[in-house]
Design brief:
alpha+beta, about 180 residues, 5 helices, nine-stranded mixed β-sheet, 9 strands
Length: about 180
């Protein structure tokens, strides 16, 4: 398996990974990725793919958001989404993508990475519930346990406050959980 930055020629393959990995929610996620991709500038985010036999089988995206800290706004990254083709689950592909991405971001002096996800999965990478680390979630629809953060070497103790998601997450209604009965 090879990990590398996403290329323009990977666009459809990445879209297919999300459509397959997220099932009924796949279209929303794939559209979100297409929109977020336009915000990933050099040093401003990261989009990685995993290849197996020259086929894209996994993808992770880290995009710029802000932490509204008392001292000043802090540029942070949000890990979202992470997807692996269903037939390639449980082979360490998602873990490799996350670890590689966090390593690149640490080298870029990014102080914090946030996500919404399963604590049982993401705790292996150092993520912990954001509320316990002094952070406030950007929406009440995010379950407390799912709102997670990891501090990277660029973090400083004064960096606390509220995560402010980038606009595409709101536009695609990809923040927190919606009541399916509404």
């Amino acid at each position: 398996m090879d990990l590398r930055e996403e290329l323009p020629s990977d666009r459809q393959a990445v879209r297919d990974v999300h459509l397959r990995a997220f099932g009924d929610h796949g279209l929303v996620v794939a559209d979100l990725v297409d929109t977020l991709r336009d915000t990933v500038a050099p040093e401003g985010g990261l989009s990685l793919v995993a290849e197996h036999d020259r086929q894209v089988v996994g993808h992770v995206m880290f995009t710029r958001s802000l932490l509204d800290a008392p001292r000043r706004l802090v540029e942070v990254q949000v890990l979202s989404p992470l997807a692996v083709m269903p037939e390639f689950h449980r082979r360490g592909i998602g873990s490799a993508l996350v670890r590689h991405g966090l390593g690149v971001l640490a080298e870029r002096a990014v102080p914090l990475v946030f996500l919404e996800g399963d604590p049982g999965y993401y705790s292996r990478f150092g993520f912990a519930p954001g509320g316990g680390l002094g952070f406030r979630k950007p929406s009440l629809r995010i379950p407390d346990g799912a709102f997670q953060a990891v501090r990277l070497p660029g973090y400083e103790p004064w960096m606390t406050g509220t995560l402010v998601y980038a606009e595409p997450f709101w536009r695609h209604d990809a923040v927190g959980l919606r009541d399916s009965h509404a």
